[in-house]
Design goal:
The radius of gyration is 25 Å and the shape is globular. Helices cover 71% and strands 0% of the residues. Helix 3 crosses helix 15 and helix 9 runs parallel beside helix 12. The protein contains 24 helices and no strands.
Length: 613
Amino acid sequence: MSPGPATPGDALAATAGFRADGADATPPADVSTPHPTGTRARVGRPRPDHATDPKAPHPTGEHPARPPAPHTRPHSSTSRRPSAPTRRFLARATLLSAALSMAGAVLGLGRDQVLAHLFGAGAQSDAFLVAWTVPEMASTLLIEDGMAFVLVPAFSLALARRAAHGPGSPDPVRALVAASLPRLCLALAGAAALLAAGAPLLVSLLAPGLSDPSLAVSCTRLTATCVLSFGLAGYCSAALRAHRSYLAPGAIYIAYNIAIITTMFALGARWGVRAAALGVALGGCLMAAVQAPSLWRRIARRPEPAAPAPASPYEGDGGRTVALGLVCAVLLFALCRQSQVLIERFLAAGLPAGAISHLNYAQKVAQLPMSLSMMVCVVTFPVVARAIAEGDTRRAGERVERDLALMACLVLLGAAVVVAGAPQIVQLLFQRGAFTAQDTAATAAVMRVYALGLLGQTLVGALVRSYFSTGRTTWFPLASMGAGALATAGIGLWAVDPWGARGIAAANAAGITLTALLLLLGLGPRAVPVRVRLVVAELSRPVRAAVCATVAGLVCARQFDSPAACVAACCLSVTAVFVLLAWVLDAAGARSLLLPVAHSVRSSVTRKLRHGR
């Protein structure tokens, strides 16, 4: 049978670099060594393997024999790496995660709209947003970064050991759960109790100039419960993603935001902004509840081993699956990263009422493109961790390179839309009820500045995974994030007086961009091997496309008076210009990605015309 036309899902899957049979699409080659000609292949493009294919022409006219790269297994037409997912699976998982993330982001936007409508941008919303610092930090530490960086590699290694052991041997996955989950619950419950008891001190430290600290204390005591619930949710998410299950982890923010919105509408008139804090507490419980059944089913059953898995070169922790040093490095990095929000709140507390709210609304909208682009990394991080657990550093390095190029394109496209249409976007989303036109202007100005740091935010989230996925204890990410936090604090102190909230946003963008540069330049033996110069060259392509697309969006947005029409024109013009330039520059392999889509559309139209006859 002849193969059918490519589908759009296959086109996205082509960026994953895996053949449909589950093996790598790219030939085995050591990514840490240059090409024989002194040049390197571009990110996301298959390279001919002259060692494994004697018929492939060599640039020098010779056919030198080259041994396989270290820690890799030879490919054959009959052998299949059991842990390598098919490209179709990666495409579907990415699309599913992106769809669920977008649904959660839309509901999060609706949550912020309800908060702005009911409480505006004043003393009440500022008090809640100070209490909101607790779930923000808990989300970073326990769901998005900290827990994932530690547990995804740990569960990946346990799954690799499970595949290598016989059915009668002890299950490494169950042993990991038994050793880690009870202790984690006890520690998180104690931390939640301490936060609730020390809420007055916490509020005075976070926002010493707050106009209504007692309201912030009440809200903080309610949101402190999310330390335990978010920890359980993050544990389940990491374990399920290591099992390559993405439905339940992707739905947690949908359940979370529904709980907050419902509680605000039901109790907002009686409890005021405390209803939003209660919604956070209830939403955290739902986040854990929606994942627990799915995780229990996967832990309870034990599949037959597919093939023996090789010993990992990174099992140098004395037999412990999760090293204490690694846990400390990850948690301190996540805390240091979240300190940027603390610096913002501290500096904005001395500004007029509403400044914290303006920063919050601007950040939430500006970070939507980053959240969407991070879904690529969320799906492929378990793939990188499993490859490292099996010793296949080449596959892990190429995976990281493709992710960086694709994520940069996605986030820069969104950043161009945010910068070009910021006033109209904020007006369309928030300007109603207690949210005034002055709030719209202030939020839009801050949002444009925030957008300048979106690429840095995305790169930090992607690059740090290449450091922690190896399972080794490394302090370089913490040092890089510390340098970025110091830059944020220093620039913020200097810029807050002349520029207010915009100066704080600029400090945030500068600090996170510095961290991204340090993480990128520091890639080497301490992380997954990535060709830094090649990655930098690839990132420059979508940056150029985004600058031109932003100019086009600014021009088109000025042609309409209606906010909805302005936003629509801005999105269409920015997307058209960006896609065109991405095609011309071949950013992230855009040509190889879009050609199958065009072929699929053309084939579908041709079939319809034939049937119409």
